[in-house]
Amino acid sequence: MALFSQLVGDGRPDVVFLHGLFGRGKNWSGIARSLAEHGLASVLFDLPDHGRSHWTETFDYERMADEVADELRLRMGTAASVSLVGHSMGGKVAMLLALRHPELVRRLVVVDIAPDISDQLRTSVPLVKAMRELDLDSLTSRGEAERRLAVDVDDPAVRQFLLQNLKRTRTAENRNGWQWELNLDLLGDHLDDVAAWPNVGEVSYAGPVLWVGGADSLYIRPEHYQPMRRLFPQVQLVWIPGAGHWVHADAPAELTATLLPFLAD
Predict the structure, then answer these.
(1) pLDDT value of residue 166
(2) Which of 36, 88, 197, 226 could connect to 9 by a Cys-Cys bridge, CB 3.0–4.6 Å?
(3) pTM of the model
(4) 171-193 b/e with 16+ CB inside 10 Å = b?
(5) Per CATH, the architecture of 5-118+197-263 is what?
């Protein structure tokens, strides 16, 4: 089943964006539009169990990487070769895609994630709980949903990030129905799998890699430097000042300025 995607810019896509947990491709639309102004067209994918893409019964990073690879070959042919940008969960998918299908990846950007267990994902547990406890049957508006979520989710930006997945489902019987447009049960039950990193063996990716960290985030730590260099010998690490884990939301202009010379090379 095809993954949902959006094209930003004109012509053959140069860049592919993969979002993080509870996200969707359009989270990268602002940066993609900035790249388009410099002649770089982008594809924004909704990964499985997110956005408008299909749902699965298991969470499997390698399967996700292979599925994105299949999509690239289907859409772009045997000569497919793109710059791949992945954030958080999408960064792990991107790393695996580069390791498993290096011929598809001209260069790789990994945003605020490492090839290791991501212990910080435990902070998603209360977010899953808040979404699960939101009574969708009695909900009358998106504003009411935000007010209810505010009881358990203090940060307005995080609430808006979660609520992008809330979809109104009008039917003849119920014109005020709502549903989560992500596989909440699967993702919520498998946060340990989302946090994990598979055993990839002795493989490595020889192409250029930009590793971008939020200076205020703890997802990239010194103990990650050696395994990252083993898997990606040409890696260069860049920190974005003032940015947390959601680098593209916290510092979009600074991240774009970092990406442009690397992607346009």
Answers:
(1) 95
(2) 36
(3) 0.95
(4) eeeeeeebebbbbbebbbebbee
(5) 3-Layer(aba) Sandwich (3.40)
